[in-house]
């Protein structure tokens, strides 16, 4: 299979999201929003229920499960220097993501580990892709960050804050779930289920051979 590589402006548009296919590679230029906080996701849902305003404009944004850490800039007064950004596991956000995807009209989400079928269905409806980031690739990811544009909810732990970044050449990241319902994670699970009888039969045969040799 030929791997297609796309260099695209972010926030990702619905049209660009729907043009991507599972397995494609994407290099990101532009603005992304990141957070690694489970409490943050609950707070975002509370915002949708009217508890408080959203910390920044998040509609049609690209929301990634990336932890980040920033400090006050030593060279530019009043600004922040980002020290690192690194992906966190998305599966723990499964129960919360379908509503966020639908109501915020997110066209790109991502992190590592994927999302479940309920999320995939929401992504199909909205026109959203899941981008898989290299786990442990903090140095590579951080090099692509050009500017911290905004930080929301400074009352939360640093990793839990909502941070908008300007990046250039972030990636390549992989389209692990496309906007048409195709998922590398679902495919891997299906293949594992198909091979399970064969694997169990081989294990039984090895045990039987061991018993005969005892």
How would you characterize this protein structure?
This protein is α/β, with parallel strands linked by helices. About 35% of the residues lie in helices and about 30% in strands. α3 runs parallel beside α4 (about 115-125). It is globular and about 75 Å long. It starts with a strand and ends with a helix.
Short characterization:
By secondary structure, the chain is an alpha/beta fold. The protein contains 6 helices and 9 strands.
CATH C-level category of the largest domain: Alpha Beta
Distance between the termini: 48 Å
Structure class: alpha/beta
Largest sheet: 5 strands, mixed, barrel
CATH architectural arrangement of the largest domain = Alpha-Beta Barrel
Instruction: Supply the number of structural domains.
Output: 2
Shape: globular
Topology:
Blueprint: E1 5-10, H1 14-19, E2 25-34, H2 38-48, E3 62-64, E4 66-72, E5 80-87, H3 97-104, E6 108-111, H4 117-126, E7 129-132, H5 138-143, E8 145-152, E9 162-177, H6 184-213
Parallel strand pairs: 1-2, 2-3, 3-6, 6-7
Antiparallel strand pairs: 2-9, 4-5, 7-9, 8-9
Helix pairs in contact: 2-3, 3-4
Notable traits:
214 residues, alpha/beta, fumarase, 2 domains, 6 helices
């Amino acid at each position: 299979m030929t791997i297609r590589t796309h260099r695209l402006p972010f926030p990702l548009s619905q049209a660009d999201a729907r043009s991507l296919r599972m397995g494609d590679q994407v290099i990101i230029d532009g603005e992304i929003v990141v957070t690694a906080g489970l409490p943050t996701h609950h707070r975002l849902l509370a915002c949708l229920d009217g508890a408080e305003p959203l910390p920044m404009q998040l509609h049609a944004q690209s929301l990634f499960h990336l932890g980040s850490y920033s400090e006050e800039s030593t060279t530019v007064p009043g600004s922040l220097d980002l020290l690192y950004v690194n992906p966190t596991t998305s599966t723990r956000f499964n129960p919360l993501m379908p509503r966020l995807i639908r109501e915020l009209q997110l066209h790109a989400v991502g992190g590592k580990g994927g999302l479940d079928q309920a999320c995939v269905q929401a992504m199909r409806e909205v026109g959203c892709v899941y981008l898989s980031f290299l786990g442990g690739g903090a140095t590579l990811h951080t090099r692509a960050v050009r500017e911290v544009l905004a930080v929301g909810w400074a009352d939360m732990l640093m990793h839990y804050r909502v941070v908008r970044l300007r990046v250039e050449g972030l990636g390549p990241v992989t389209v692990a779930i496309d906007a048409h319902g195709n998922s590398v994670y679902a495919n891997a699970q299906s293949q594992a289920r198909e091979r399970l009888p064969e694997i169990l039969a081989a294990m039984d045969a090895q045990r039987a051979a061991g018993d005969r040799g005892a």
